Amino acid sequence: MPEPTSTKKISFRKIIRRESGFLVLTVLLGLFPFVMNLITGSGLNDGITKYWQGQLIAFFIMAVLAMSYDLLIGYAGILSFGHAAFFGGGAYTMALLLTHWGPTFASRYRITIPGGTDITTLIIFIASLLASAVVALLIGALFSATSARLKGAYFAMLTLALAEAIHILAKATDFVQWTGADEGLHGVPIPAWLNPTQFRLRFYFIALAFLVISYFVIRRFTNSPTGRVIVATRENEDRMRMIGYNPATYRTITFLTASLFAGLAGAMYSLWNMSATPSMTSAVTTVNMLIMVILGGMGTLIGPIIGAGLMQTLSQFLYNFFGARWPLVFGLIFIFIVLFFPYGIVGTWRLKQPDLKAGWERFRRLLGSKPPEQQ
Amino acid sequence: MSQENILEAHNLRKAFGGLVAVDDVSIHIQEKTMHAIIGPNGAGKTTLFNLLSGTMPPTSGQVFYHGRDITHLPPQRRAHLGIGRSFQITNIFPNLTVLENIRLATQAMGKHNFRLLHLAENYSEYIEKAEAVIEQVGLTGRELIIVRNLPHGEKRKLELGIMLACDPELLLFDEPTAGMSSEQVPELIQIINKVVKEKGRTAILVEHRMDMVMQISDKITVMSQGTILAEGSPHEIANNRQVQKAYLGDLYGELA
Ligand SMILES: Nc1ncnc2c1ncn2[C@@H]1O[C@H](COP(=O)(O)OP(=O)(O)OP(=O)(O)O)[C@@H](O)[C@H]1O
Ligand SMILES: [Mg+2]
Description:
The complex is a heterodimer.
Chain A: H1 12-18, H2 20-40, H3 47-75, H4 83-108, H5 120-147, H6 152-171, H7 176-179, H8 200-222, H9 225-235, H10 237-242, H11 247-273, H12 283-296, H13 302-322, H14 326-340, H15 344-350, H16 356-368
Chain B: E1 5-16, E2 19-30, E3 34-38, H1 45-53, E4 60-65, E5 68-69, H2 75-81, E6 83-86, H3 98-108, H4 124-136, H5 152-165, E7 170-174, H6 185-199, E8 202-206, H7 210-216, E9 219-224, E10 227-232, H8 234-238, H9 241-255
Parallel strand pairs in B: 3-8, 3-9, 6-7, 7-8
Antiparallel strand pairs in B: 1-2, 1-4, 4-5, 9-10
Helix pairs in contact in B: 3-4, 3-5, 4-5
The structure holds adenosine-5'-triphosphate and magnesium ion.
């Protein structure tokens, strides 16, 4: 393969400098359990330290899901409402295989490496993870193939319908002995060495590694020749055609990449909860992604990560104060953030326009546009 | 079919409902010539370009490129065959930089579009080619400006640059000077003339500035209401009574 004939090749050092913010965050998150342990005195695997690790694990997985959604709506400008299908597809594949295939396989075969160590459960885990990725990719391929000819709102409706079909499939009583229908799958027998209750710290680092690796791979993808084409196609599809690109090809690549990461996030999530439930495939999941990406800033990658963290913190915090009515308060906060950070937190920050005055103006206009009888 | 004709259109027709924008147009473009198409507003020039570049399918008729029937090829396939087009209404990537606008076009013609995990910045060949084009169209020093912030004249140069960056064999210029002030026009025409004459390319030029057209074109086709009114050398066209009556008369009067 002809390597790029480059004299100005981007060095490793340059990447480190460019991603310094993210790397600092990674180090802080890596140190977090130990710092908590020192401060609170609660053991690494119990008490408040364990609780907060759990919160962060869920955040790491949701952040990957939000980034994968950002690839579609932020980078490619594809408004897809079917993201839960990829996530749920990955989650169900993992849970189904571990529940129905893993134990049978383990009872029939024992795989050891030369030292005598039994790696059967590792093999089962890796095979299930790969299968989750493949299923998510297949759903992604289905989405991009069926919707290739549609645009805008029609396209968005179709993705919603497809995801809804998968949601119905998850709830279908016809497969109840496999999927648990409405109940979903619970108590999934995940490999003992991965058990998030017993080995919280280990799972914490696996989830953190999942986030870090996903971030760098997706970041690299968006900065690749292909990623540049995807962004430009969002900007001006017709001109892209005229200079020799086929938008449909790049759209498919985007869908496949997004569905791959969403599916892996689903698989991780089902490991973390040791369950897969129909709600993971529901439109609510997709709407949550949409909120995370909008909050953080579309097309920024780091934004959706922040959006995921913010949403999780706020939902916890608000739940403690307002109980079941927390979404109402969250909705109000969301409106305020959108008014003052129209491009999301990261997007607005980068544009150096956290303009309070403009935000206040938008707020007044919003109140002014209330129906007369309410005024 | 003659060998020296790079492009031939046979009986092209495009109807928008009842309106026939291009009506039975046949045109032959000789290799390595500058072929101008002129005609009043609404004559069907842009629509003809849409049919030649593949942006729209014709209602009927055929297009041949180097003797090959390309009537049903999409624009991206035609681009790779060597057909480039610039637009009358500026058609750029508004939120990207000047450099990226042009680099995308140089990358399009290369072989690295599917390197998913390599950095685009490391493919310096495309950046170098893009910088050469930026210099060619006189945008040096403006590389890192987000193009929606460019003044109109520079947007027109960029519009041209995006096409030139693909290094096409056949260039379709749709009113490259549209909306430019008279002082800016000669520079742009100079760029076009240089590319076509020095690199031995073929061009179809739609242009309203008659003085320019008369100076640089080898052949002129006059369109009116979707049909071809006349065709010939600049000299023949200038002396064509019918053309003078229908079109040139008032335009010359306007410009003189
Ligand atoms: N997409 C379209 N749908 C309907 N009518 C169209 C469309 N495009 C062009 N037309 C009509 O076709 C006719 C020819 O338009 P066209 O743009 O090809 O003319 P033109 O010669 O390029 O004119 P100008 O000098 O103003 O650019 C016009 O009457 C125009 O209104
Ligand atoms: Mg026109």
